[in-house]
Specification:
alpha/beta; six-stranded parallel β-sheet; 6 helices
Length: about 200
């Protein structure tokens, strides 16, 4: 039996599953410039529903440098996320929040062509979740098809899972020096299975 919480004490911060978007939850199509191009992987809804049922918060974290490069606007990113939310809702699954970084230092749109603290593997998006949801990053997981996702996990003290979908299989063959994933999974469903065993 757990010890009773002291009156007025804040609840303990909980962990979270931070998940990449393109190549992890949805098919990688390059710069995704229209919501009608969104295609969920066949396992995405079931895997997210398993996390939802386990009581784990899920937050999407995505680099969207196409905004800084002038390929599409931030409004398009929001439209894409609304489309993903609709598809998930139809399967009784959900993502709790959608965060993205629109910046890139080599961009062509001045307002977004900056070096920021939110482009993965920088920790700015996770810091936002800590502020808004009281997340404990050291009890969290980051799942994605790029080493920047594993790097983000390392930056915040969490655990990183590389998936082989999207760019993941190619990334796995060329790991950066001194960066190892806590797990490598064939896809997001496999990553979720590993996470639930840890949690």
């Amino acid at each position: 039996m757990s010890a009773p919480r002291r009156a007025g004490a804040a609840p303990a911060a909980r962990g979270c599953v931070f998940v990449d978007r393109d190549g992890t939850l949805i098919e990688e199509v390059g710069y995704l410039d229209r919501p009608e191009r969104v295609v969920l992987y066949p396992w995405t809804v079931d895997a997210l529903r398993a996390l939802n049922r386990a009581g784990l918060r899920v937050i999407l974290v995505s680099n969207q440098s196409g905004v800084a490069r002038g390929f599409f606007s931030e409004a398009v990113v929001h439209d894409v996320h609304r489309r993903i939310a609709e598809l998930l809702e139809a399967g009784n699954a959900r993502i709790d929040a959608y965060y993205h970084c629109p910046h890139h230092p080599d961009g062509s749109v001045p307002d977004y062509a900056i070096a920021c603290d939110c482009r993965k593997p920088s920790p700015g998006l996770v810091a936002r979740a800590v502020r808004e949801f009281g997340i404990d990053p050291t009890r969290s997981f980051v799942v994605g098809d790029r080493w920047v996702d594993v790097g983000l996990a390392r930056r915040v003290g969490g655990r990183g899972v590389l998936v082989r979908t999207g760019y993941g299989a190619a990334e796995e063959r060329h790991p950066p020096d001194l960066l190892l994933a806590d797990a490598v999974a064939d896809n997001f469903a496999g990553a979720v299975g590993w996470i639930l065993r840890q949690a």
